[in-house]
Amino acid sequence: MNQVRKADPNNKTVAENRKARFSYEVLDTIEAGLVLTGTEVKSLRQGQANIQDSYASVEGGEIWLINSYLPEYLQANRFNHEPRRRRKLLLNKREMAKLSQSVDREGMTLVPLKIYFNDQGRAKVLLAVGRGKKLHDKRETEKQRDWSREKGRLLKERG
């Protein structure tokens, strides 16, 4: 009954924000669609996007992805897109209300964790609701990571 899923070429991670989990305490994640132009989709399929310094903002009842970098598609001469333009995120009204409420009332931040293509081949953003970590929290995370790495080495040596 166990079916082995084949690696779907459409379902792949394009960009990942690896620093986000270090800098923010991730409380909740939500999947959102992206409004993209044709050249942006082609550029994403080449896998050169960057979301390290990007964030999401609630403006006018809509949620926007700000400061994400999708390089220009080289074959698209004059019809190309702007690499750092604001991109609208697609969410349900209930999800938008929940996210805007957590940002407004509780002082949370919306941080994109990764951009990927789902099973249908549509570009999605994994958006995290997080609280910024203090310096001592970051040190604690680093200690935990170093200790688990060292523990793995010791167990590997001793068998």
Automatic annotation (TrEMBL):
Major localization listed first in the record, in broad terms: cytoplasm
GO CC field: cytosol
One term of GO molecular function: RNA binding
Pfam families: SmpB (PF01668)
InterPro entries: SmpB, SsrA-bd_prot, SsrA-bd_prot_CS
Ranges annotated as biased composition (Basic and acidic residues): 137-159
Highest taxon listed in the record's lineage: Bacteria
Claim: Ribonucleoprotein is one of the keywords in the record: no
Ranges for region Disordered: 135-159
GO-annotated biological processes: trans-translation; trans-translation-dependent protein tagging
Compartment annotation: Cytoplasm
CDD domains, A to Z: SmpB
Keywords (A to Z) from UniProt: Cytoplasm, RNA-binding
NCBIfam families attached to this UniProt entry: PRK05422.1, smpB
UniProt similarity note: Belongs to the SmpB family.
Function per UniProt: Required for rescue of stalled ribosomes mediated by trans-translation. Binds to transfer-messenger RNA (tmRNA), required for stable association of tmRNA with ribosomes. tmRNA and SmpB together mimic tRNA shape, replacing the anticodon stem-loop with SmpB. tmRNA is encoded by the ssrA gene; the 2 termini fold to resemble tRNA(Ala) and it encodes a 'tag peptide', a short internal open reading frame. During trans-translation Ala-aminoacylated tmRNA acts like a tRNA, entering the A-site of stalled ribosomes, displacing the stalled mRNA.
HAMAP family: SmpB (MF_00023)
Protein name per the record: SsrA-binding protein
